[in-house]
Amino acid sequence: MVTDHFSYALRWAVEAGADEAEVRAAWASGRAVDVPIGHLWDVLRVTTTVGVDVIRALDADGVTLGPILEVPPRVTIEFLVPRGHCSQWKRQPSVLLVDSGHIRWPAPDVTLPRDRRAVCGRSWIVPPWAGRPEHTPIGHLFTAVQNSIGGHNAAAEHERRAVKIAAAEARGRVPTLR
Questions:
Q1: Which phi-psi region, left, alpha or beta, contains residue 115 (left: φ > 0; alpha: ψ -120 to 50)?
Q2: What are the residues facing 46 on neighbouring strands?
Q3: Residue 23 falls in which region: left (phi positive, over 0), alpha (psi -120 to 50) or beta
Q4: Is 60 exceeded by the pLDDT of residue 1?
């Protein structure tokens, strides 16, 4: 079924450099299609754990989200970001900035809320629908990613210290043989 959302996503994929016939054929058969990265947008790929934190934080702050993909085979979430912004982020664990290559796009109605997935396993968390922004606001996205990573790093450090203390206490309780 062709809808305004389908037409919008199709037009946007073609403007990014995808072949219209390939897009239509892939979507009609339940497959995702390769859409070039770096022409209209870049991609911010984060671990699913960080991505879920980011989506929750942005939603709680009332930020209107741009297109977001869940990618189970990679255990990641991908955000479309304005072209050229990837070069402004420093490299860090849990984050991959992609400014070239291809992103696999399922049809816009292949969404998590509908419990649908493309053959490759991908599903839109926030699909590229008409009336939605083309990107999640980069400043909000950057802050939410940094907060998530900082929170996970702090939790890991706390756990590391707790294990170290427990190990030291266990060594102190072990009876010695004389």
A1: left
A2: 77, 95
A3: alpha
A4: no
User: Which residue is it, tokens 């070039």?
Assistant: 36
Helix (H, G, I), strand (E, B) or coil at 93: coil
Residue 46, amino acid: V
Alpha-carbon distance values, 42 to 53, 75, 163 (Å): 21, 19, 40
Contacts of 142 (CB under 8 A, 6+ apart): 89
Straight-line distance from the first to the last Cα atom of the chain, in angstroms, rounded to the nearest whole number: 82
Query: What residue type is 51 in one-letter code?
Result: G
Q: Which two tokens stand for residue 76?
A: 């990641």
Token pair for residue 166?
């427990």
**pLDDT of 14-44, one tens digit each?**
999 999 999 999 999 999 999 999 999 999 9
Q: Please, what is the angle between helix 138-173 and helix 48-60, to 10°?
A: 120
CA atoms within 13 A on the CB side of 159: 6
Q: What is the DSSP code string of 1-56?
A: ---HHHHHHHHHHHHTT--HHHHHHHHHTT--EEEESSSSEEEEEEEHHHHHHHHH
